[in-house]
UniProtKB/TrEMBL annotation, chain A:
It is found in: Mitochondrion. The keyword Repeat does not apply. The lineage of its organism: Eukaryota, Metazoa, Ecdysozoa, Arthropoda, Chelicerata. The keyword Ribonucleoprotein applies. This is Large ribosomal subunit protein bL19m. One of its GO terms (cellular component) is mitochondrial large ribosomal subunit. Belongs to the bacterial ribosomal protein bL19 family. Keywords: Mitochondrion, Ribonucleoprotein, Ribosomal protein, Transit peptide. PANTHER family: LARGE RIBOSOMAL SUBUNIT PROTEIN BL19M (PTHR15680:SF9), RIBOSOMAL PROTEIN L19 (PTHR15680). GO terms for molecular function: structural constituent of ribosome. InterPro entries: Ribosomal_bL19 (IPR001857), Ribosomal_bL19_sf (IPR038657), Translation_prot_SH3-like_sf (IPR008991).
UniProtKB/TrEMBL annotation, chain B:
GO terms for molecular function: structural constituent of ribosome. SUPFAM superfamilies: Translation proteins. The keyword Ribosomal protein applies. It comes from Tetranychus urticae. One of its GO terms (biological process) is translation. Belongs to the universal ribosomal protein uL3 family. InterPro entries: Ribosomal_uL3, Ribosomal_uL3_bac/org-type, Transl_B-barrel_sf. The gene is 107365672. This is Large ribosomal subunit protein uL3m.
Length: 314, 355
């Protein structure tokens, strides 16, 4: 039986991290616990045949390989997943505002799991400046609404601050350690042992080469005993939690439990229009990435000089 | 009984068109035409209807003197979306984007002409007022009936998707065919917005009226119910107007007193403070000057009257409210006063001594 060809285009927040290994345009959902444990990577959902032996070949990719990483580098430039809230004119106006803000501040690329330091001009703080350092737990929102949360433990007390990415009171965003974790959502660190989310506030930044691939930290976190504040397995965007160490008294199927992966009936997974509405097609993505790549080329030399000047000052 | 009459004349959600109005849509939506005939119609549409036939004369383009008694025309807009902006204090506000797309004046009536047209219920509301009919978003005439397309012949325009009737004074009359822009208003003005709210269908009492409900424990049936209705009106039954389940949303509502924060002159987009403009994204809404007395227009700062006419000098792309932080500007920095500096130093000294 030849099943229909399905192309799934995935929004960056709903993507498990291992999807980066292949191209974004192909279709897959993570199939149980098979793939990663055996080192095979992801398997296709509807057919397990490789690409060469397919009767119906997959269509050509619209997005070139150079721009594939833009989806993960600038996730806030994608319009919202809800089709009711999308509008073409609104996105154009919003992107113009975002790029104008990026001229004034150097917003670096960072991911969930990398360590950041943010300085903000605060009217209530002493000296009108406040600085905070922590691990990036979560990124959410689209456009000017996009924000990220930092977590750290100061004086045995957990502190989390959520910053708007395009807030004009932010003076600088420093990347102190650039790396990825196994999960896209690290909010379970609230119920983990405190050693995993404590960082000294005067931490020095790590040097890394330009253009080098971003390393993945395969650390597995040891959680505190149950009960937790929230059941982290249920709330997750991913289909499985990879970054939690397996616990005594918890069955294996409990780690894989997720609401988003579940279908109401057998035929819902073949509903192409439902997927088309909930995801953003490549035709809509390509002009955004082209515009951003042009912007990068025009401003890359200016930003390099500014970064070097900062390093020399230290 | 008062509630009964209120619903009769200002209907909540059902408005049937009057029987003397012209039928809107054409009977045959897809006429079977050959390619040559189709091409002929398209060419005819582009040559005759792409731009207004009758360009309004220059004598009406001069600005008139605005008085506090005069009323201007409004605009028809589409709600595009919501996104945040920041003030110069660092405060975050939400703004809704309203696009004014292809607005034209189609017809105007004097106060004498309009007095004959007014229906009996509105005779006091529109006393001594004139009227302008405004349309938005022109469309191909083949979709509409011949009678409906004939309304736009005088203005020399293709038929519009949306029409409204706006009561105005005799000063503010405009010739048919004049375009209306988003710069009819200015940033800093206060405005009323009218529209249909989001429809939710038949809803229970928890969602519709924010009742608390009960406890979903084991075998109780006390979960999302209203509870006792009560013996009101001398044990005759519940009170009139008791909050109960029913149809929720899609009501005709106005938001009074909304501030304009920014205007994009290129795309004709108005940025309005607050996310609570009625309707979903993509819905039509209508913008007028406020009726709130404290926020009304004054003689010191009169608006463009009867409308804004594009002059020789081009406006900048974005017009801002003075309180709004522009995204082009540098980051916000607060400066310490001398008092605060002294307090900070003394606080540090005291902390040293205590250690």
């Amino acid at each position: 039986m030849v099943l229909p060809r399905v192309i799934k285009l995935i929004h960056s927040y709903n993507v498990p991290l291992y999807c980066q290994l292949r191209s974004a345009s192909r279709s897959w959902i993570y199939k149980g616990g098979k793939g990663i444990d055996k080192g095979k990577g992801f398997s296709f959902t509807y057919t397990s045949t490789p690409d060469d032996k397919r009767q119906i070949p997959l269509s050509q990719k619209l997005i070139p390989e150079e721009l594939e990483s833009m989806r993960l580098k600038y996730p806030e430039f994608l319009p919202s997943t809800k089709p009711e809230h999308r509008n073409k004119i609104k996105t154009v106006l919003e992107h113009n505002d975002m790029l104008q803000r990026r001229n004034n501040i150097d917003i670096p690329e960072f991911y969930v799991g990398s360590i950041l330091a943010v300085t903000v001009s605060d009217p209530n703080a002493a000296g009108k400046i406040s600085r905070f350092l922590g691990i990036c737990i979560f990124r959410e929102g689209t456009g000017l609404n996009s924000c990220f949360t930092l977590r750290n433990i100061v004086d045995r007390e957990g502190i989390e601050i959520r910053y708007d990415l395009y807030n004009p009171t932010i003076r600088s965003i420093e990347v102190i350690k650039l790396e990825k974790r196994l999960d896209q959502d690290l909010r379970y660190l609230r119920d983990a042992e405190p050693q995993y989310s404590t960082f000294p506030l005067d931490m020095e930044p790590e040097l890394r080469k330009e253009g080098a691939p971003v390393p993945v930290n395969p650390i597995k976190v040891k959680m505190l005993p149950l009960p937790w504040s929230i059941d982290w397995f249920k709330i997750r965007y991913q289909h499985q939690t990879y970054g939690i160490e397996k616990m005594r008294g918890v069955w294996e199927y409990y780690y894989k439990r997720s609401v988003h992966n579940r279908h109401h009936n057998e035929y819902e997974q073949f509903d192409l229009m439902k997927e088309y509405r909930s995801h953003i097609p490549e035709d809509a993505q390509l002009p955004i990435w082209n515009k951003l790549s042009d912007y990068e080329k025009s401003t890359s030399e200016i930003k390099k000089k500014a970064r070097r000047a900062k390093m020399i000052k230290r | 009984m008062s509630a009964f009459f209120k619903n009769l004349y200002n209907k909540r959600r059902t408005t049937h068109p009057f029987r003397w109005w012209i039928k809107r849509k054409a009977d045959s939506f897809k006429p079977e035409l050959t390619k040559d005939n189709q091409k002929f119609i398209d060419d005819y549409f582009q040559t005759n209807f792409s731009t207004p036939l009758i360009v309004p004369d220059l004598f009406n383009k001069s600005q008139k003197v605005w008085t506090p008694e005069s009323r201007r025309v409004g605009l028809i807009a589409r709600k595009i979306g919501v996104y945040p902006m920041w003030l110069k204090d660092g405060q975050r506000i939400l703004t809704t984007l309203l696009q004014v797309n292809d607005n034209h004046v189609i017809k105007c009536y004097n106060s004498e002409q309009f007095a004959n047209q007014v229906i009996h219920q509105d005779r006091y509301r529109y006393q001594g007022l004139a009227c302008a009919i405004i349309g938005a978003e022109s469309d191909h005439f083949i979709k509409y009936s011949a009678g409906y397309a004939g309304l736009f012949v005088e203005a020399g325009l293709p038929p519009k998707k949306k029409l409204t009737k706006v009561p105005i004074t005799d000063d503010a009359l405009l010739p048919p065919g004049t375009p209306l822009y988003a710069t009819h208003f200015r940033p800093g003005d206060w405005v009323d917005i009218f529209g249909l709210t989001i429809e939710h269908g038949f809803q229970g009492v928890v969602k519709r009226w924010d009742f608390a409900g009960g406890h979903p424990i084991n075998t109780t049936k006390w979960k999302r119910r209203p509870g006792a209705i009560g013996h009101g009106r001398r044990a005759g039954g519940p009170h009139k107007g008791k909050k109960m389940p029913g149809h929720m949303g899609r009501e005709r509502k106005t938001l009074n007193g909304v501030e304009i924060m920014r205007i994009n002159t290129k795309e004709n987009v108005i940025y309005v403070r607050g996310p609570a403009v009625p309707g979903e994204t993509g819905n039509f809404c209508y913008i007028f000057d406020t009726k709130i007395i404290e926020k009304k227009l004054t003689e010191k700062n009169p608006p463009p009257f009867p409308t804004y006419f594009p002059g020789d000098n081009e406006l900048p792309v974005d017009l801002y409210h003075p309180d709004v932080h522009r995204f082009e500007d540098e980051t916000i920095q607060f400066v310490e006063t001398e008092k605060e500096q002294q307090q900070r130093r003394t606080g540090a000294k005291i902390a040293k001594i205590r250690k």
